[in-house]
Amino acid sequence: MEKSNELKELLDRLYVQYDTAEFIEPDPVSIPHSFSRREDIEISGLLASTIAWGNRKAIVKSARRMMDYLDREPYRFVTEASDREISGLKSFVHRTFSGDDFIAFIYMLRSLCSNYGSIGEYFEGKFTETGDIRKVLSAFHTDFLSLPHNPHADKHISSITKGAACKRLCMYLRWMVRQDACGVDFGLWRKIPSSALYLPLDVHSGNTGRLLGLLKRQQSDWKAVEEITANLRVFDASDPVKYDFALFGAGINQLAISN
Predict the structure, then answer these.
(1) Per the confidence metrics, is the pTM higher than 0.90?
(2) Nearest Cα to 147, choosing from 177, 103, 94?
(3) Which of 96, 138, 154, 246 has the most beta carbons within 10 angstroms of its beta carbon?
(4) Which are the contacts of 199, defined by CB distance < 8 A and separation ≥ 6?
(5) CA-CA distance, 129 to 13, in Å (whole number)?
(6) Please, are residues 213 and 259 in contact by the beta-carbon 8 Å criterion?
């Protein structure tokens, strides 16, 4: 019990240290923070999180270019741009995310917004139906990729049914759902409680989690996500993924911590 209390104190201290406004600028979450309209935040956030792997500086740079391609009006571009305008996205590239993938995402986002009104209405509606983020992630994978498109784009939407950790989608959900007093996360989707979220597991949070005894599984897959999230719920059942800041921050800054 004493060790558990010490771990909670450490996690809470690291959470306070990293959940600050200073976290925003070098992080991909800065992209949706450059907009004020809900629909723009949702679309820019999904696109930014989709390319969020690798070096953070390169991710942010590429995501800003993405927004420039969309005339810095992502919702208007998604819903109103002509086929000719959309074809202009072909020259974009970020690592394995090609211009053709970008084009496919725009058309799939257009279909989703047309059918559901907005990305937020889709996710909130699916959660209201199922009450389970795991089922929401599974439905999103199916629904988003249901429109005819270049199959190369499929690799950029993780499949929970195949056991993927779905790190980028979990991070996107954290951005949109969490009620964050420090203003990093947006808290836009009020119909989904923070308690339902799962940790966006990456190499940094995974390594720190294993070091602290929060994660024993060596493979960073969905089973690992469930394991570490369940352990974090012991410390805060209402908002377990707030500790993403602690685990990621400690990991990326290579803090000397021990269990």
Answers:
(1) yes
(2) 103
(3) 246
(4) 170, 205, 225, 228, 229, 232, 240, 241, 243, 244, 247
(5) 36
(6) yes
